[in-house]
Amino acid sequence: MSLDLYAEELISNYEHPHNKGKIDNPDAEMHEYNPVCGDDITIYIKVSDNKVKEVKFEGQGCAISMGTASMLTESIKGKSLSEISAMGFKDIVELIGVDPGPARLKCATISLKALQKAVQKIKH
């Protein structure tokens, strides 16, 4: 797939996000905010048998942060908490198909950071 097609998928997820909204009575929720660029996200997660049963997000931000949040929440359904804890920047680049570079690193990883903190909350 060409870089343009990956970028198109990211933009499409920004314009038509999956899993946007709030979960009533989540097992955990975590808010992250990046004051440098204004990305603001809250992740909600429900778990059953140590696996993601439901995940949603609310927030606002740039196309990279919101598109990635949509793609990430879609990709982790059914994954174990350990799998999510082990995810890193390389997994995000693979998921979105674009390396955002150092200037947009926080934009691309803000949803993963919130998600991993929510998972830690559940584990403890």
From TrEMBL:
Descriptive protein name: SUF system FeS assembly protein, NifU family
Domain of life of the source: Archaea
PANTHER family in alphabetical order: IRON-SULFUR CLUSTER ASSEMBLY ENZYME NIFU HOMOLOG
Domain spans labelled NIF system FeS cluster assembly NifU N-terminal: 6-122
GO BP term, pick one: iron-sulfur cluster assembly
InterPro entries linked to this entry: NIF_FeS_clus_asmbl_NifU_N (IPR002871)
Coiled-coil positions: none
Source organism of this protein record: Candidatus Micrarchaeum acidiphilum ARMAN-2
